[in-house]
Request: fold
Amino acid sequence: MAEKVIYAMYDDDDVLKDGAKKLVAKGVKVADVFSPFPIHGIDPIIGVKQTRLGIMAFLYGLTGLTLATVGMNYFMIQDWPMNIGGKPNDSYLDNVLAFIPISFEFTVLCAAHGMAITYLLLNKTLPGMPATNPDPRTTDDKFVMELRLSDNGQFSEGELMAMLNETGVIEVDQKDIH
Amino acid sequence: MHKEAAIREPLILGHKTYHQITEDVCKPIEDKAPRMWYILFGIALVIGLYGVGCIFYLLGTGIGVWGLNKTVGWAWDITNFVWWVGIGHAGTLISAVLLLFRQKWRMAINRSAEAMTIFAVFMAGLFPLIHMGRLWVGYWTLPLPNHFGSLWVNFNSPLLWDVFAISTYLSVSLVFWYIGLIPDFATIRDRVKKPIPKKMYSILSFGWSGRAKHWNRFELVSLVLAGVATPLVFSVHSIVSFDFATSVIPGWHTTIFPPYFVAGAVFSGFAMVQTLLLVMRKAMKLEAYIHTRHVEYMNIVIMVTGSIVGTAYITELFISWYSGVEYEAYAFFNRATGPYWWAYWSMMTCNVVSPQLMWFKKLRRSLLFTFIISIVVNIGMWFERYVIIVTSIHRDYLPSSWSMHYPSHIDLGVYVGTIGLFFVFFLLFARFFPVLALNELKTILKSSGESYKNDTAPVHPYFAKNGHSHGHDDHGNTDNH
Reply:
């Protein structure tokens, strides 16, 4: 089903933020904001929640640490204990000092890559994905606010337009998205 | 907007708009490359290919083509390896450590410093690989199941720690760099008109659209990556130093090595950043973004880390005497007065004396002086590794085994070749990639741009009407990223 979307373009991040604040105060729901750089402070205004990727990174790091520990214990202690310089690999605890560097590196490796891959998948930003910004200028110096008519049933299209025009908008565009 | 003290020097000179920043950074990519680029690229390519030729000759003939002998079994290969890894320390330090410390000046230099880091680590990684002699079995350094042989790799060995440290460092730096690049590739994608570049940049930009939620994730990912990359930076060169410090060779067996190597690495890395950026800012007309203040900040880092390195040299000397170990004392006496005295004193002059000149404000704000010192520092840091490695082993325990190391032309070819390849990569980067972090620079424009700091920038008509100035209002964490 086709849905009507209003794209309101601004030429300044602070103007957009000010506008978003005023619209939200009137009960308008802002669906999304497209910007060339992160606009600090916009997230709480339009209701974007703080991402939980940090927790994911911690879990990936923990996985890495576990894998490194299990692996080194198996390779060096269980499967083929070596006697190096008269210091036999009897137990993991006796040798743990030598295993710290790799445990650390592997933790970082898994945390960083796990988080990066999750980030790309969540964003659906992968090689070959099509760009979805409404106007090519939003990656340069323009800022676009997206309003959906379906989210704002209590207002008519005309009312939304009138409210937008008070916020210093420079261009307003309407599209039907499917 | 986060207000910045008026007396703090602006980071972006003159009056710039968001669009102007995009123009300034994208113009050199979209325009035809200047003649000079082709000339430099040609020279670097020829030198690089010569190096590749030397490597093939080495692999085909054997390690004997290097100037190694029974006593000096490690020389230029490991020297070059440590030198390149050291150079590769600045980029991630700038983008990770300085991000955590909220140093906004890093935003003008982090992209190219990280590129430099990645290419330097490529060059570093080449040396242990070719030193294996049989490059094609390089994967034996991975812990593979027993049917590849009867043993696992030795997890007690610092050489294996190095495999993990360097590969983690390289791949994490690459990911960190690329995640920052994605939004900037999107900017170029949305600007270019020609179909082939458009296709290329649209693949590279992964379909980035700049949604609020994506930026929210972007900032957190950058912060967490910086958090994990910070200890990583310090661990990598510590582990490189363990290659030496855990051995029993006099001159290597010292506990001071990890911090001393890390300081040395940062020292040489920043010097390389200076060498490259002083040329790049001129060639690509980025003087408004990378200016005297940035150079001065980096010179201060060079001065501090250079002083740490100098202190470490002197501590080593003192301890070699104070420990009362004759072998240790001899190793250091031999370094300073033996047949390699010239290498030792070159190292001392370049690394201990030259950074001290940075105490003078006039000198550390002089671009020409900085350029010269940055090259001197890297020469000094190469000599440092040569001194540590060759002078420690060329006097073996038995005087009948005493020997000297004379590099062969293949040693020289491989080394110079890696410098060529490094510049091939860096020039390609400067030609096709956004060399400044566009999205980050735009976030500091209003707080650190000159015209915004001295209020000469025009007030946005919307705020002029509604009585705000630049919209400096309440929200907090502006310099989060």
